[in-house]
């Protein structure tokens, strides 16, 4: 392969942007290409770099095409694997999608290398989703909005929204991903994506949160400490179920309470 035949498609990091890049790849019959998030792309002098403008209509055409050749499980796998943000996931999924369009992968075929790798990534994302559903800790603000901050390994916020919408349907809440600088706000009716200019304010107990919130946190911390039996403490098992990387935003692990 000559360097001049290689194309790099730079997209905006959204799922629609990714599907738009796939549309362009098919429309322009590009055989040797890399699809990359524009924020992580380094222009390569011997490659054809192309910036992809997201078009919902083009993304919808790709998705509509997938509806005709895939199962709901396969389409869910594509979206969940995309949310992993693992380096090279776009190229892996593009290969996966090409094989699906060519009907080279059956719905139950996990022995094929590409399908197997996608399935493995989906499993990893699924584990992170369940952990976030268990580890989210809300705090009450002065405006009577329950706020939680998270920093998951994968971009699972779109996957956990329905869980909290069903569980806390009668409350206003915000779950904010500090790592990716965006959150989901629920106003008791609908959800919307928001981004804060100063997200660090969410980490303050004084400026934003209700006066009784700190008392609730201390009560929860006292309860958590009280139910732990020192003689039966198993640190290895504890870390297995509650890895240290999640402690930062857990009330019961706050050393200042």
Q: What are the main properties of this structure?
A:
257 residues, alpha/beta, 2 domains, three-stranded parallel β-sheet, 8 strands, 42% helix, elongated
Secondary-structure blueprint of this entry?
Layout: E1 7-11, H1 15-27, E2 33-37, E3 48-51, H2 56-69, H3 72-82, H4 89-101, H5 113-135, E4 139-140, E5 146-150, H6 157-167, E6 173-177, E7 182-186, E8 191-194, H7 213-227, H8 235-241
Parallel strand pairs: 1-2, 1-3, 5-6
Antiparallel strand pairs: 4-5, 6-7, 7-8
Helix pairs in contact: 1-2, 3-5, 4-5, 5-6
Protein name: Putative DNA metabolism protein
Organism: Aquimarina brevivitae
Pfam family, one: DUF4130
At a glance:
Helices cover 42% and strands 14% of the residues. It has 257 residues and is an alpha/beta fold. A hairpin with a 5-residue loop joins strand 4 (139-140) and strand 5.
């Amino acid at each position: 392969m000559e360097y001049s035949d290689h194309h790099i498609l730079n997209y905006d990091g959204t799922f629609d942007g990714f599907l738009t890049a796939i549309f362009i790849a098919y429309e322009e019959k590009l055989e040797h290409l890399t699809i990359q998030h524009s924020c992580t792309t380094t222009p390569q002098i011997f490659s054809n770099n192309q910036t992809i403008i997201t078009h919902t209509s083009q993304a919808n055409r790709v998705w509509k095409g997938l509806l005709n050749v895939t199962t709901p499980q396969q389409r869910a796998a594509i979206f969940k694997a995309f949310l992993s943000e693992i380096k090279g996931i776009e190229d892996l999924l593009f290969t996966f999608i090409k094989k699906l369009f060519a009907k080279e992968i059956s719905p139950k075929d996990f022995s094929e290398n590409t399908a197997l790798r996608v399935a493995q990534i989906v499993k990893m994302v699924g584990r992170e989703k369940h952990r976030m559903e268990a580890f989210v800790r809300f705090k009450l603000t002065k405006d009577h909005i329950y706020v939680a901050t998270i920093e998951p390994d994968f971009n699972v916020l779109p996957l956990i929204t329905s869980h909290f919408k069903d569980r806390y349907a009668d409350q206003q809440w915000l779950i904010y991903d500090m790592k990716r600088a965006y959150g989901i706000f629920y106003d008791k009716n609908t959800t919307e994506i928001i981004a804060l200019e100063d997200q660090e304010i969410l980490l303050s107990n004084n400026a934003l949160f209700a006066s009784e919130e700190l008392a609730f946190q201390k009560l929860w911390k006292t309860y958590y400490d009280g139910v732990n039996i020192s003689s039966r403490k198993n640190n290895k098992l504890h870390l297995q179920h509650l890895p240290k990387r999640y402690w930062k935003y857990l009330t019961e692990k706050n050393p200042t309470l």
